[in-house]
C-alpha cells in the first residue's frame, strides 16, 4: 500500500504560484505527510494542440488517480481577472467521474493564489477555487487568525487561503509572512488529513 499523501495541484505560468506550491509542500511535510506536487498543461484555443506527456520542467502533470487517491488537496492558481486560470478550471471540469463516485467527499482541501496587484482579486480567486471543491464534498481548511502573520502581513495572506503579491513585473519574491502562511496552510492541511485518516 502506498503512503498517504497530500496532492499539491497547481497551474503556474511564470513561477510565482509554483514557488507557493513548494512552500506549502514543506508545510505538509512539517505536518507529517508526504506532499505530491503536480501541475496541469496550458490550454490552447487550437483544439488540436496537444502538450507532451511530460512537462519540460517542474512538476509532472496530474492524473485523475493522483486526485482520487490523495488524503487531501492543496489547489493553486494565478489570479486571472479575479478568477482561477483556465488550465486549472479545465482540469477540474474533467473530474465528473470522481464527482459521480463521491471520490473526494470528506477529504480536506485548501487553496492558494498569486496576483500582480495587491488588491487585484486574491480573495475572489480563492473563493472561485473553493466552489468546485465544495461540489465535490471536500472539507475546507482556511487559515485561522491564530496565525500572527495573517494580521502582520503587508503582502499576501487571507483567511480563505494563502496568497502572494508578485508585483506588476512578477518579480517580487515570497516575503517572510507569505512563506509563513504557505507553510502554515500546508501543515494544517496535513494535520487535518492525518486525523481524518485515523
Ligand atoms: C490573463 C491574465 C489575467 C490576470 N488577471 C489578474 C488580476 O485580475 N489581478 C491581478 O492582480 N493579477 C492578474 N494577473 C497577473 C497574475 O495573476 C500574476 O502575474 C501572477 O503572479 C502569475 O502567477 P504565476 O507566476 O504563477 O504564473 C493576470 C495575468 C494574466 C495573464
UniProtKB/TrEMBL annotation:
GO terms for molecular function: electron transfer activity; FMN binding; NAD(P)H dehydrogenase (quinone) activity. Its cofactor is FMN. Gene3D superfamilies: 3.40.50.360. One of its GO terms (cellular component) is membrane. NCBIfam families: flav_wrbA, PRK03767.1. InterPro entries: Flavodoxin/NO_synth, Flavodoxin_CS, Flavoprotein-like_sf, Flavoprotein_WrbA-like, FMN_Rdtase-like_dom. This is NAD(P)H dehydrogenase (Quinone). Residues 6-190 form the Flavodoxin-like domain. It holds the Pfam family FMN_red. Keywords: Flavoprotein, FMN. It comes from the Bacteria. Belongs to the WrbA family.
Amino acid at each position: 500500500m502506498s503512503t498517504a499523501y497530500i496532492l499539491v495541484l497547481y497551474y503556474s505560468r511564470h513561477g510565482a504560484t509554483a514557488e507557493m506550491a513548494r512552500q506549502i509542500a514543506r508545510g505538509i511535510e512539517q505536518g507529517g505527510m508526504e506532499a505530491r506536487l503536480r501541475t496541469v498543461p496550458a490550454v490552447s484555443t487550437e483544439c488540436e494542440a496537444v502538450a507532451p506527456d511530460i512537462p519540460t520542467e517542474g512538476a509532472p502533470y496530474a492524473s485523475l488517480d493522483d486526485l482520487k487517491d490523495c488524503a487531501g488537496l492543496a489547489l493553486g492558481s494565478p489570479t486571472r481577472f479575479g478568477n482561477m486560470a483556465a488550465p486549472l478550471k479545465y482540469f477540474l471540469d474533467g473530474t465528473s467521474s470522481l464527482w459521480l463516485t463521491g471520490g473526494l467527499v470528506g477529504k480536506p482541501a485548501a487553496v492558494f493564489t498569486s496576483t500582480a496587484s495587491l488588491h487585484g482579486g486574491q480573495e475572489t480567486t480563492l473563493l472561485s477555487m473553493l466552489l468546485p471543491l465544495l461540489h465535490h464534498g471536500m472539507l475546507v481548511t482556511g487559515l485561522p487568525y491564530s496565525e500572527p502573520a495573517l494580521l502582520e502581513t503587508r503582502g499576501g495572506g487571507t483567511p480563505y487561503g494563502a496568497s502572494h503579491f508578485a508585483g506588476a513585473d512578477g518579480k517580487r519574491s515570497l516575503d517572510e509572512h507569505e512563506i509563513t502562511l504557505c507553510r502554515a496552510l500546508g501543515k494544517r492541511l496535513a494535520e487535518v488529513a492525518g486525523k481524518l485518516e485515523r
